[in-house]
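[Discussion] Sanity-checking designs against the backbone

I'm trying to build intuition for which residues belong where. Below is a structure token string of 559 positions. I'd appreciate it if someone posts a full sequence so I can compare it with mine line by line.
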């Protein structure tokens, strides 16, 4: 069953049940400051659930574009996605648990024809009512599990809003898969079970402090992930082998000469490029542009992550527009904004990737240097500050000898990689110089404080990248800290996030101290305000070039 057939079957089924089909809302939530991006089908339903707006019908059904930032770092495994499509049916004060449960079972058994023996049900701890409705449909009692709030309570979407207990349908791939534990079940983190449908009984409203009060009406909010359902219906164990991703995988294979499944590294890289390539296409189509904060930062982060994983496949030039072209071609008839915004989408991707491409090689070389010097620092010298004190001369000699022993190699390194080595060597020698001063002269508390800080940096060097180094990669080469963290983790290192934030705050202070954008001289400002010109309209969201008119100049304080 193709993904388009599943999508149509779902919408048609609920139309038969008296539901009105509503189009997907934008990935940018309208009028909801609590949400960064649309993360569920119920986001556009929130005003109906809490009584702020009147729905076009008390029964609604949709296929909603969704984006969840929580899974960015794990995209590349068999199932996690940032962008996905959520099939959902909604009741606004109309039907409740009985109908929601009965119709979901009818759809998976009669329309999708999933084998009942492979299905498990979960309900909230004290929800006897929901369990009884499942029993009435013929589900065996030992196939219905009670779960706590962590697994079977949904919402709110954002800091506040509608929420409630839920019941889920899970598909079981069989005892021969997964972790093999005797207590393995639908809530297990292994890949034996796949959650395909979540039925939320939305009857509570949660405020920003976490307090919950009953809604004026009981509602239904369900979500069936199209990608996971497509995997089941197409006999695949992961979403990347379904028809939703194979066109992109084929294009990546053509561009790289690599084959999906060739190695674990290649497979993960192809998944990341395909998933992020699809996600950035939809984000830009809905008006998100790359920036250093908010939604724009999410877009920039996944675009750059895709570019880095493309490098692992041997792609040394910009390539993401080629992935976006496939997305538009494949999905444009379902989401017409892709087609209408095609040229704009490709232009934004091209500009952003080209900008990052100019620095990606230099940034990677700098990072390689940071990682390499840590791989040769004797860990017994830097295990703790006491060890360093006891071996102060030995470590001094090691640092100097190693640096100069690597002299010929340093000459062969790129300037950026060599700079990373020199920086690390400088940290060692600065700390050792201070420590030697205390050791020889017994200077007071100030010197002691300095050396303690420097020794703590050395103690972490074999396992950490310092906050300053992570900041430099971000500030100079545009590497988001999450990407640096991911590459560092592949080499057994963590990053000093606290130190990074300190560097970021120091930069903000420098920025606040700099001259503000605008006219500094009050007389210049008065002249500007006296000009009889209309307000300036910013047009950069829709075009890259525009003609404009200079209406006045100030030279040496004179108009």
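Best answer:
Here's mine. Compare freely.
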């Amino acid at each position: 069953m193709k993904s388009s057939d599943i999508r149509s079957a779902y919408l048609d089924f609920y139309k038969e049940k008296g539901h009105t089909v509503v189009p997907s809302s934008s990935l940018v939530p309208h009028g909801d400051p609590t949400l960064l991006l649309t993360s569920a089908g119920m986001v556009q339903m929130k005003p109906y659930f809490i009584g702020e707006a009147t729905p076009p019908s008390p029964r609604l059904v949709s296929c909603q574009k969704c984006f969840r930032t929580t899974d960015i770092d794990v995209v590349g495994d068999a199932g996690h996605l940032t962008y996905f499509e959520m099939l959902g049916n909604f009741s606004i004060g109309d039907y409740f648990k009985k109908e929601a449960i009965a119709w979901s079972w009818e759809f998976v058994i009669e329309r999708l024809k999933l084998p009942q023996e492979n299905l498990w049900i979960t309900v909230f701890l004290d929800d006897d009512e929901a369990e009884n409705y499942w029993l009435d449909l013929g589900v065996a009692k030992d196939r219905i599990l009670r779960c706590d709030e962590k697994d079977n309570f949904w919402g709110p979407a954002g800091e506040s809003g509608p929420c409630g207990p839920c019941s889920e349908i899970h598909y079981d791939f069989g005892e021969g898969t997964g972790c093999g534990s005797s207590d393995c079940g639908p809530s297990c983190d292994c890949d034996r079970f796949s959650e395909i449908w979540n039925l939320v009984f939305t009857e509570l409203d949660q405020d920003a402090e976490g307090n919950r009060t009953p809604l004026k009406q009981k509602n239904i909010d369900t979500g069936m992930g199209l990608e996971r359902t497509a995997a089941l219906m197409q006999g695949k164990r992961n979403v990347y082998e379904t028809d939703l991703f194979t066109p992109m995988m084929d294009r990546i294979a053509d561009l790289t000469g690599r084959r999906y499944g060739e190695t674990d590294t290649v497979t993960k890289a192809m998944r990341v490029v395909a998933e992020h390539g699809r996600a950035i296409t939809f984000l830009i189509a809905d008006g998100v542009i790359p920036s250093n904060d908010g939604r724009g930062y999410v877009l920039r982060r996944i675009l750059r992550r895709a570019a880095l994983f493309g490098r692992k496949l041997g792609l040394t030039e910009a390539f993401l527009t080629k992935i976006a072209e496939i997305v538009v071609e494949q999905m444009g008839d379902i989401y017409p904004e892709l087609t209408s915004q095609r040229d704009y989408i490709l232009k934004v991707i091209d500009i952003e990737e080209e900008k990052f491409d100019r620095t990606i090689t230099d940034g990677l070389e700098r990072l390689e240097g940071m990682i390499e010097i840590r791989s040769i620092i004797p860990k017994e010298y830097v295990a703790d500050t006491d060890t360093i004190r006891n071996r102060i001369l030995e470590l001094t000699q090691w640092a100097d000898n190693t640096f100069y022993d690597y002299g010929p190699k340093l000459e062969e390194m790129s300037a950026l990689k060599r700079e990373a080595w020199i920086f690390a060597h400088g940290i060692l020698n600065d700390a050792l110089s201070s420590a030697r001063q205390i050791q020889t002269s017994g200077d007071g508390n100030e010197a002691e404080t300095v050396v303690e800080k420097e020794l703590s940096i050395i103690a972490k060097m074999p396992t950490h990248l310092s906050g300053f180094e992570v900041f430099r990669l971000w500030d100079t080469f545009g590497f988001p800290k999450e990407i640096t963290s991911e590459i560092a983790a592949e080499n057994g290192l963590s990053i000093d996030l606290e130190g990074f934030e300190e560097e970021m705050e120091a930069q903000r202070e420098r920025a606040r101290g700099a001259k503000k954008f605008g006219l500094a001289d009050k007389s210049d400002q008065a002249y500007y305000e006296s000009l009889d010109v209309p307000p300036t309209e910013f047009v950069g969201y829709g075009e890259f070039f525009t003609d404009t008119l200079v209406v006045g100049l100030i030279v040496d304080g004179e108009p």
